[in-house]
Structures are given as C-alpha cells and as structure tokens.
Write a structure and sequence with these properties.
CATH topology of the largest domain in chain B: Uridine Diphospho-n-acetylenolpyruvylglucosamine Reductase, domain 3
Radius of gyration of chain A: 23 Å
Strand content of chain A: 15-25%
Strand order of the largest sheet of chain B: 4-5-9-7-8
Structural class of chain A: alpha+beta
CATH architecture of the largest domain in chain B: 2-Layer Sandwich
Radius of gyration of chain B: 21 Å
Oligomer: heterodimer
Shape of chain B: globular
CATH topology of the largest domain in chain A: Uridine Diphospho-n-acetylenolpyruvylglucosamine Reductase, domain 3
Strand content of chain B: 15-25%
Number of helices of chain B: 16
Shape of chain A: globular
Helix content of chain B: 25-40%
CATH class of the largest domain in chain A: Alpha Beta
Helix content of chain A: 25-40%
Chain lengths: 496, 406
C-alpha cells in the first residue's frame, strides 16, 4: 500500500452530498455537474496513479462567472475544492478528496486574443499547452514552456505548478512567460492581475500565484508572452563512456559562453527504452547520451554545433551524431518526450524530479545507482542536464507486495541527496502530496510558516487543494495558531 | 533621522529587527540609499542599511549562478562577472544620476527589491526572472529563506520572486542568489533617424517579430536625442530609434544584414561601432540624458501599441519628454515641476490606454501629496494588505513608502 497519509474526509460534508449536488446543479446547470460514480471515477487520480480518491462531485464550468459561483458557494458552506486541469500532475497535485468538489477548467479552452505586434496571447486556462503554440504558430511565434505532457496538460496546471520543459534552459519556465491572470479567489471574487505589460504593478502577486499549486485560487484566463520562433533548430547527440564525462561536457559548454536551447541527458537504460520506442538513431553502446539543440540560420546552426562538437572532442566521446533531417530531429525529440511513457511500457515507475547544482552530477548519479541497488530496484535516468533537473525513474512492480514502499523509500533518499548537495526536492513537477512530507528536509519551520501565512492571505479557511504542499501537522499547527489569534482578537473586542 | 543601523551579519540583522519589533520602532530600509527619494516619504526614527553586509558568497560560472550578500555594490558584482565573461542579463537600470545620486553605487539587494530592468528585459526577462533565491528577515524578526541556487525549483511557493519589487516593505534581504549569463561576443546597433513616435514603435515591434534575437529596442524623440553625449548622434538633430543585436561575430554580420533588409522601409540606419554601441547602451542604462533636474520623472508600463497615443494624450496637458524603452512597453516620462506632478492627467491617460505609472522623481512635498505607486484595485489592495500583515504586521519596514496606509 502506498504510504502517504491523506486527510480523512469530513463526515458532515459527505452526509450533505445529495444536497450539495442539487445546489451545484441549480447554480451552473445539470450539464456542468458530474455526480454519478462512473463519471467521477475518471477524476479519481492524476499521473501519480498509486493514489486514488473518488471526489464528492465534479463541476466543469464553462465561464469564469460559473467558477466564481461555485467557489462562493463552497466557501459559504465550508466545502473543500480541488482545481483540476488535465490531471497530468506527477506529484498528486490534482488528487481529489472524498469531501471536495473538483472544479475542472477543461471546458474553458478558447484562445481569446492573439497580438503578434505586442507579442502576447490571451487564452482561457483550460487550453492545452501545445494548443497555444499551435494557435500562434501561423504567425511564426510559439509559447516557450514545453513540459513533456504538453499535448495533454493545460495552461491552468502549468501555472499552478510553474511547469518547465526541455527548452526552458534558454526560454525560462512558466513564471517567466506569463504576464497576467484572471483568478477566482475562494470567496468568488474575480481578480485581474497583470496584463499585457512586462512589469507587475505593486507587489508581484503573479509571482506568488504561479507555482502555488492551486492553493490560492482558480486561474481561468491568462495573458502569456509569445516569442518569435528562430529560423531553424537542430539537435545533435553526443555519447560518452561515463556520466561523469557527460556532466563535464555540459559544464564546459555552458562555461564556454554558449547557451543551447536544450541539453538533455539519458543514461544507458533510458537510451535503450527510448530507442526501442522512437527509432531515433540514439547510439546504444554508450553509458550517457546528451541531446543538445541549438537555433538560428542553417549556417549559424552548423557553426554552433561544430563548436560544441569541438568541446566534446576533448572528452573523447564515443559517438557524435548531428541530426541529418527535420524528420530525424522530430524522432530524437519524440523519443525524449515519450521517455516516461516508454519506460512505463516496461514497468511501473516512480518519477523523481530533484534539481542539483551541476558540479555534483557525477557524484549524485553514482549515489542514485547505489540507493536503487540497495533497495533491489532498477533505475533509468533522464533529465534536463542544462539546469541540473534530474528525473530518475525508479522502476518497481506494483503487484509485488512491498515494492511500492521500496520505490517510495528509494525516492525519498534520492531527494534528500539532492537537497544535501545544495539542490531542491522538485524542479518542475511540484510538491503535491508526493513531496509534502519531505518539505522539512529543505525548509525550516519558519520558512514553512512564511509560506503558509501567504496561503492564508489568499485562502484564509484553507479550502483550496487541501492536504498538499505542506506537512499535515504543520498545517494543523498553523490553523490552530490562527484560531487562537482570532479568539484573542474576538476576546479583546468583547472586553473593549 | 536619529540613527542608522548597519548590521554586518545576518545574525546582527535579525537581532536588530527583533529589537525594533519589540519596541515597535519603524525603520527606513535602504541599501546604498541611491533610490531613497523614490516612493512616498517614509517617516521613521531609524534607518537600517544593508550596506554593511557585503561580499560574493558563491560564484559558479559553469552553473551560471552567483550568491551575494544584499549590500554588495552592483559595480563589484558586474566586475567579477565580467572577469569570467558573464553578466546580469536584465541590464539593471541605474537610477542614481536621474535621482541626484552618484552612478554605480546601488546594491544588488536593491536591484531585486526594486525589480529594475533595462533594455535587454525585452529579450532576456526582468530582474525578478533571474532571482533564484534569497535569505531575509521579516517584520516578525524571523530569519527565513526561499528558493535556492538551482535554476529550476518549484519547491514551495515562490516567495523570493514575490518579494521582488516590494521596495523593502515586506522583508529585509540579507543575501540574494541569481542566475547569470555569458556576455555576448559582439554587439551591433542600428540607429534609424527621424521617425515619429508611432513609426518608431512600429519599427521596434517589427524588429522583435523577426527571428534575429533583437536584444534592445529604444526610441529617443529629437528633444532627448539632443541631450546625448555622443556628438555624432546628437548632431543628427532628429529622433533616434535603436535596434540592438548581440551574439557571435559571424552571426551578427548575418543578422544585421537581414534586419536591414527587413526594415528597409524605415530608412537607412546608422551602424554603430562596437565601442559606440556599448557607450550608447550604457547611457540608456544610466538614463544619462534624463539627469537630475527639478522636473518630475514618471515610469509608465503599457502595451507598446498604446505607447505613442498615451504620450500624446499627456502632451495635450503639459510639455513632456518621453523615452521609449522595450519597444514602447516602458516609457520614462519627464514632466514639468508642479505641485501634483501632473498626476491626474497622467493617471487618466494610463487608465484609458492600459498600464500603470510610478512617479520616480519628485520633491518630498509632492510625494507626500500624491499616489507615487499606481493605486490598486480593491481586490489587489486587499491581497497586498494581507501580504503586508503576513510579513510585517507591526508596519516596521518603510511604512507608507508604497501605499499610505501600509
């Protein structure tokens, strides 16, 4: 059995289920409410599939006003809410609870405005990540963050988790590419923050909202920065006999003054699986493979790739392959982006997401192998090497008793290792439920208190995406403190 | 001002703030003090400066990361970065000369606390985009950290970025960690002359819509161009619109050629040499053509397509000089000295065309009278007040600097 503790549902809410469904149906219409068990099953988990909870009821609003009505109703009635995009969270960020209304934004997926001259697009948040780039591709533009799940994942989810992707080495992550949002707060208030401007006004509320894991409000619209696409792009692959050498190569490329668009890393087990899936021509007899992409005109690309090859040559690589065609480039990226799915065809896996300072790469990779071997598990490493964001895939068999526990234990050890060398628990997947109980490895009680106070500003009753991000006992203590403060204040007022 | 507190260590900072909290004594929070004249006047018996906490604590060029104590002079950081062929990509604006303080004295903490970015922001992102982590003390007297030293980090809320641009009103930073990038090998600047503001915005937006990684787009109407130090540009006696590209030398010559072709309709540009290019963009960064005068200086953030209209609207009420950065997305507006700094007309124009305005330079008395920062909507006001209460419930830090009651 998976071991992360989930809060027990509020029996008084469960008892009112039928009444709540009727109220929601009259608020937003029967067609927007999913109440039957089969319908709700589709929402019981996200991409952290080991955890499942059947939601109280699911609402799929079509407008910001409907979201506002639902949240206001939930707030007045003290009902928890879990916001949901496409449910692709790898950290359990979208996991429902039995006593919570799931509010999905998937119906709100329209492009509202594209302005090439001023380089922004305004979209509804339920749009998929890739659909934004598709919509602006006509004008030669693109939306930069590109999580591997970009075909399915929504911008709403990207904003909640501050998602990254392979190409954020050059273009930044979600927070660097969102200019404004329309957000519905838990009391139903609709707030516009930022807009098609490059600067925030006043406090940078947008910086806090992006990456708040659906705990501050529900974003229904966003203004995003769109960028002119380069003339062309091409990847090359460099294979090494050891991860240490691959790590050194990455450091030397960046140290030389070149920032490629992407530098991706795969180890031998990962290469084999991805090649089998994508037939991209990955060299199979190497221990570590780098995929490095640069952009520009044909001539610029050739120049740049030749320069990178000259840096790599000093480390005696086992293979250097420059993509020979657009079709091969597409296959190289297809293999990389489908890596998780490809591993998933072979085995259950637990995908980690720690980030480390690059200089520690060889040491950390060695330790990861040791940790997994000690637990009797296999591991494939696939990650964004340019920014040190590791994705060890710890493979296990969910049907074997005890293996899930082992995988979780190995995962926790790996993340602690990342923090101990100066890194962090999660680079782009978010804390969710998965890393909630490890937060104290990275943060002090005060660090957590500072964050939890911000949560209370946006959602004083802690109704949004409850049970995620912070250790449950820390939340309970924070709420008790708040209750005591309120009582003191009321007491003082009464005395006066 | 009775007293200046100057902690040398994080521990001293924490104990000084705890002592202030215990006695409920508010403090003006400053770095080098070069931007002290920005914001509503702060009434506090004590000033606390971070300038005693200095020094670079971590620099890993191959990881593109640096940490420095908040009071480290920016100049020191830029020298250290340049020695390894790197830079702060967002090209922090130096407001010193425009505010009557020396150039080059501001601290790295203040750069992030005020989120001041220069011309390269249009391509590379702003100061807050490069802030990876910080250590700070809040108004509870608690020491805390946020973020870290790695490029990608979504562990917990993004408190570090949330504190950027808060002008020392939420917490006092003791150390900042930020991403850096390689210096470009070469720089080229194409300067188009004699364009109207409208046409200049069109030129700049067109340039940014081309795939040649333009890294700076500024427009100086004739009145400002006349004030430039560079004699050859000054002698044009026309408006100047500059497009910058930065890259490897071979790329630059190719891209320059393509840009000239694509922008041929706007005339034949002056092609600045490397040296003149660097000098030109250095002047942009220091706003050296908008020096300290008894006039007012506004900073207006808007959408480029609205920029020229917005300035024209204001011109109907007062004579102004407007410097367009970020293709028009940022307007530095010099307005005549007056009792209210033209606030009503400027805010009305901004409300019509979209965006927000901050009064950067004005007398003490004017700043006490008008809203210096853009007035907030009721909802954002409530959230901002909530944040102030969360970080600084006793109102110790820069009380009233951004908003009268906070």
């Amino acid at each position: 059995m998976p071991s992360i503790e989930l809060p027990s549902p509020d029996a008084s809410i469960l008892a009112r289920r039928n009444e709540i469904i009727r109220d929601l149906q009259s608020l937003v219409g029967v067609h927007c409410v999913i109440a039957d068990e089969d319908g709700r099953r589709a929402f019981e988990t996200d991409a952290l599939t080991a955890y499942k909870r059947l939601p109280l009821v699911v609402v799929l609003p079509s407008t910001t006003d409907e979201v506002s009505k639902v949240l206001k109703y939930a707030k007045v009635n003290g009902i928890k809410v879990v916001a949901r995009g496409a449910g692709t969270s790898l950290s359990g960020g979208a996991l429902p609870s039995e006593d919570a209304i799931v509010v999905g934004v998937s119906k709100m997926n329209k492009v509202l405005e594209i302005d090439y001259e001023n380089r922004f697009a305004r979209v509804e948040s339920g749009i998929t990540n890739l659909a934004i780039s598709d919509a602006v591709g006509r004008g030669g533009f693109f939306y930069a963050p590109d999580p591997s799940s970009q075909i399915a994942c929504t911008l709403a989810g990207n904003i909640a988790m501050n998602s990254g992707g392979a190409h954020c080495l050059k273009y930044g992550v979600t927070t660097n590419n969102v200019l404004g949002v329309k957000i519905v707060l838990m009391d139903g208030e609709i707030v516009e923050i930022g807009g098609p401007f490059l600067e925030p006004e006043g406090y940078d509320l947008l910086a806090l909202i992006v990456g708040s894991e659906g705990q501050f409000g529900i974003v229904t619209e966003a203004t995003v920065r769109i960028l002119r696409a380069a003339e062309g792009a091409r990847p090359m692959m460099i294979g090494f006999e050891s991860s240490a050498k691959a790590g050194m190569c990455v450091a030397r490329i960046i140290g030389s003054g070149i920032i490629p668009v992407a530098i991706e890393f795969m180890d031998r087990p990962a290469i084999a699986v991805c090649e089998d899936f994508a037939k991209a021509g990955y060299p199979l007899d190497v221990e570590a493979l780098l995929i490095i992409e640069v952009e520009g005109s044909e001539e610029e690309i050739s120049d740049r790739l030749a320069y990178i090859a000259s840096i790599a040559e000093e480390l005696s690589p086992q293979a250097i392959v420059v993509s020979a065609s657009a079709a091969q480039s597409a296959r190289i990226w297809k293999g990389r982006k489908a890596a998780f799915g490809a591993v998933g065809r072979l085995s259950d896996y637990y995908c980690m997401d720690g980030t480390i300072p690059l200089t520690h790469l060889p040491h950390v990779l060695e330790k990861i192998s040791e940790i997994c071997a000690r637990h009797g598990l296999r591991v494939a490493n696939i990650f964004h090497a340019g920014d040190g964001n590791l994705h060890p895939l710890v493979m296990y068999d969910a049907n074997k008793p005890g293996e899930t526990d082992k995988a979780e234990a190995a995962g926790a050890e790996i993340l602690k290792l990342c923090v101990s060398v100066g890194g962090c628990l999660t680079g782009e997947h978010g804390v969710g439920i998965e890393k909630r109980d490890l937060m104290r490895v990275q943060f002090s009680e005060t660090d957590l208190a500072v964050q939890m106070r911000i949560k209370s500003v946006f959602d004083p009753d802690w109704l949004l995406n409850n049970g995620k991000v912070f250790p449950l006992d820390a939340v309970a203590a924070a709420l008790a403190r708040r209750e005591a403060e309120l009582q003191r204040a009321t007491g003082a007022a009464a005395a006066a | 001002m009775d007293e200046i507190l100057k902690p040398a260590t994080e521990w001293e900072l924490k104990s000084m703030i705890s002592a202030l909290a215990e006695r409920q004594i508010p403090a003006e929070i400053i770095g080098a003090g070069s931007k002290r004249g920005v914001g509503r006047p702060v009434s506090a018996p004590v000033a606390l400066t971070t300038s005693g906490m200095r020094g670079i604590s971590l620099y890993e060029p191959s990881e593109l990361v640096m940490s420095a104590r908040a009071g480290t002079p920016l100049a020191q950081i830029e020298v250290e970065l340049a020695s390894r062929g790197q830079m702060l990509p967002f090209e922090p604006i130096d407001l010193g000369p425009a505010l009557g303080a020396p150039a080059g004295i501001q601290t790295i903490g203040a750069v992030f606390a005020t989120n001041m970015s220069g011309a390269r922001r249009i391509a590379a992102g702003s100061a807050r985009d490069y802030l990876l982590g910080l250590r700070a003390v809040n108004g509870h007297g608690e020491f805390f950290k946020s973020g870290g030293r790695v490029m990608k980090n979504v562990t917990g809320y993004d408190v570090a970025r949330g504190l950027s641009g808060s002008w020392g009103t939420l917490a006092v930073m003791s150390e900042v960690t930020f991403k850096v990038l390689p210096l470009p090998d070469d720089v080229a600047t194409l300067v188009y002359t004699g364009l109207t503001d409208d046409l200049a915005v069109e030129l700049m937006s067109t340039a940014l819509g081309l795939p040649y990684e333009v890294s700076g787009t500024v427009h100086l109407p004739a009145g400002l161009a006349r004030r430039l130090k560079q004699a050859d540009l000054r002698s044009e006696k026309k408006s100047l619109t500059a497009i910058r590209i930065e890259n490897f030398t071979r790329s630059i010559s190719y891209r320059k050629g393509r840009l000239k072709e694509a922008l041929a309709a706007f005339g034949e540009p002056i092609d600045l040499s490397l040296e003149k290019s660097l000098q030109f963009w250095g002047d942009m960064r220091r706003l050296s053509f908008m020096p300290y005068e008894p006039t007012h200086l506004w900073r207006i953030s808007t959408s480029p397509r609205m920029a020229a209209k917005l300035v024209n609207d204001i011109k109907r009420h007062m004579p102004v000089e407007a410097f367009y950065d970020w293709s028009g997305g940022l307007i530095w507006l010099e307005t005549p000295a007056s009792a209210d700094a033209g606030t009503a007309d400027i805010r009305r124009a901004v409300a019509i065309h979209g965006g927000h305005a901050t009064l950067v330079r004005a007398d003490h008395s004017v700043r006490g009278l008008v809203d210096v920062f853009q007035p907030q909507s009721p909802a954002t006001e409530r959230l901002s007040r909530g944040l102030k209460d969360a970080f600084d419930p006793l109102r110790l830090f820069n009380p009233g600097r951004m908003y009268a009651t906070m």
